[in-house]
Amino acid sequence: MLCIIQNLSAITNVYRHVLAHTFLPDMSSDKSTLATESTLLGADAPFPFNDHEMDVILRSSDRTDFYVHTAMLSVASPVFRDLFELAQARGLRLTSPTSSSMKRCVEMAEDRHSLDLFLRWCDTRGSIPLEMTIPDIATVIRLADKFQVEGIASRIAPHLYQFIESEPLSVYAIAACHASFTHDNATWGNALARRAAKQLLMSPMPFQTPNYEFFKTVPAIVMEPLYQYHRACGMSVRENIQKHHISWLSNRSTWPWLSQCTCTTQGRIPQVPDWWRAYLIRLCELLENQPSATTILALNSDDDLMSVITHSCHCTLGNGIICSAKALHDAERFHAGLSKYIQEAVDKIVLDFSKRKMK
């Protein structure tokens, strides 16, 4: 009997040793795991995550220990709750190298910076950073999705608005990933993505891709509605210009001097010089690729569009004013009025997220 007991004891010790060196199964795509053994010392995280009174350690991939409370994270995240329950069921109890008490240690796939950013949004002890970069915001939202922490994405979204003008494509990518397919269930992602998409109308396609790691993982299906929206706006602006250009010519308040222009004319429409035709074609091409009122208002005499006038207007008006000089002067006023027609055409187009659906 003594021999049997000794054998059972030996088997139990072997089992415990194997269990102590076995990682728990992957609980997410980023492979965060609960470790059973701490072989190297971990440095303490900055305040407030250096409080050794907390009952669990989250160890970053670069070996920084974040002391957190199991109950607090379990309430915020069902993923953390399941991880802690699974660890408790297996009886894992590890000694923290930075504390005399026994603590559970969770080995994380995230580095110190990412983990610190994320925990400050879900741990009430942490203060939210006043300044965050686009990659920082993307990291917090990604981890909120990974650990299923409700509310973080919508709370951090306002921080993205400050980047709409400087980095609209990045803002769109982050927001569109959280946009609803339907208008009935519109989220913060829908509104923010539309703002970013409208800002991108000032940029020609193809857009310059941001050099961020998170952007490399954005699915093409998320970007497709943006490209469709941009093209649709361009076509709408072109059609609106072509629809109204005859009325502009006949309105003397728009081009009051045009009847005096003696530059070469062709076609059946009277008082339409060749330079106007060339100008209109170039104008439509420009706005079809950059369908924004800002595009036209930012033009100056050195731009390609304006060079059509300077290179093609050669006559002298009846009052001795050179045609091209008068045209350039009036073009600025014309462009200011044109912005209304551009905006009118763009407002007809809606960024449609339903086209993201896989068939």
Percent of residues in helices comes to 40-55%
- Provide the structure class: mainly alpha
**Strand fraction band?**
5-15%
* Rounded average pLDDT: 77
**Counting H and I runs of at least 4 residues, what is the number of helices?**
13
**Morphology call:** elongated
CA distance, first residue to last residue: 68 Å
**Major sheet:** 6 strands, mixed
Q: Enumerate the spans where pLDDT stays under 50 for 5 or more consecutive residues.
A: 1-39, 91-96
Q: What's the total count of β strands? A: 6
Organism: Lentinula detonsa
Protein name: BTB domain-containing protein
Brief summary:
InterPro entries: BTB/POZ_dom, SKP1/BTB/POZ_sf. By secondary structure, the chain is mainly α.
Question: Would you mind describing this structure in some detail?
Answer:
The chain is mainly alpha-helical and 359 residues long. 48% of the residues lie in helices and 6% in strands. It is built from 13 helices and six strands. Strands 1, 2, 3, 4, 5 and 6 form a six-stranded mixed sheet that branches. Helix 7 (168-176) runs antiparallel to helix 8 (188-199) and helix 10 runs antiparallel to helix 12. The longest helix has 31 residues, at 220-250.
